Amino acid sequence: MDIEDIITAAVIFAVGVLVLALAFIVGRWLLRKIFIRAPKRDTEAYLRFISPREFEAYMTRLFALMGYDARLTPATSDGGKDIVLRDEGEVIYVECKQWEEGAFVGRPELQKLAGAAALDSVGEIIFVATCRYSETAERAAAQSRTMKVTLWTMDDILRAIRMVKEETGVKYIEE
What we know:
single chain, alpha/beta, five-stranded mixed β-sheet, two-stranded parallel ribbon, elongated
């Protein structure tokens, strides 16, 4: 056995050790991500973890616990809104967007909901998003003269969850 064979064997051994170490680290990370650190209910991580439809259903339940008569619209052909709220005879349309933390809801998305509400003579809309709003969307909401426009961010959602839990004693919103 010459020096080249020894070097080749050493390199193969080192690469093998690195591959095993990497597989161990990635495997452990995946286990922790999937099983050990799965998001707990009613947290920001949970709200980002569930599917968009589950998020809409979750928000419907949250609004119901807040005292609204809340109805989830069909998954398709929803007429531009995800939830219809009724409060003392008033109708409110709600749109839910479960977007990445760094995303921004723009004015076009807000206009779509406002247009659906205007077509149905609904005077109030709530846009619920797990992200922030663009300046133009915020300005449009603040300047609306024909309907009340409320923009919820993740902070507003979490604040509403805390309030509902304190006032109702409900442990988890989705139950």
